Amino acid sequence: MRAWMPTTAALLAVLAAGAAASEKEEAAFKVVPIGTVEREAGKTYLVVHEKLAEGLLGLDGFSHVVVLYWFDRNDTEQQRRILQVHPKGDPKNPLRGVFATRSPVRPNLIGLSVCKIVAVEKNKVQVDQIDAFDHTPLVDLKPFIPPDNPTQDVRVRKD
To answer: Which residues of 53-63 are buried (b: 16+ CB within 10 A; e: fewer)?
Structure first.
């Protein structure tokens, strides 16, 4: 009895399937800034590009906005490879994986803040505050809707 030997076509199919899986893991997404965080005279604004201002219609009916932004000042290959940090940059805090922290260093540099809306005018959303630097690129804005967020059985680390 002769051992089964895969054909060249079968081997190529297996290699192609592996390459396709690898490509999916490494697939890139195109994300373009929708505007920037701007600070003027002690006020904080989410300034959306004028061509996207129509997208703010109705946002003034919400008390809070979820802001997604890009940690652009950390955007280096070296920073993206950091997978463990001391929370808040304090070595007294126990080492944690970046996915268990709000650290600005991570494989994808997406920041998230929930901000109270003060006013919406034209292409500007004034917010009470945001944990982002002046001129930080905005990725997206979404209205904060409490039923979308868990309110029972929420657990957070205490250390």
So the answer is: eeebeebeeee
CATH architecture of 31-144: Beta Barrel (2.40)
- For the four alpha carbons of 9, 11, 15 and 21, in that order, the dihedral sign comes to positive
pLDDT tens, residue by residue, 66-115 = 999 999 998 899 999 999 999 888 999 999 999 999 889 999 999 999 99
Indicate the SS3 state at residue 116: strand
Residue 17 CA to residue 21 CA, distance in Å, equals: 6
Paired strand residues for 65: 115, 143
User: How do the domains of the chain map onto residue ranges?
Assistant: 31-144
Count Cβ neighbours within 10 Å for each residue of 6-33 and write b for 16 or more, e otherwise: eeeeeeeeeeeeeeeeeeeeeeeeeeeb
Distance CA 133, CA 110 (A): 13
Contacts of 110 (CB under 8 A, 6+ apart): 68, 69, 70, 71, 139
Q: Quick one: pLDDT at residue 56?
A: 98
pTM confidence score: 0.78
Torsion over CA: 19, 21, 25, 28 (sign): positive
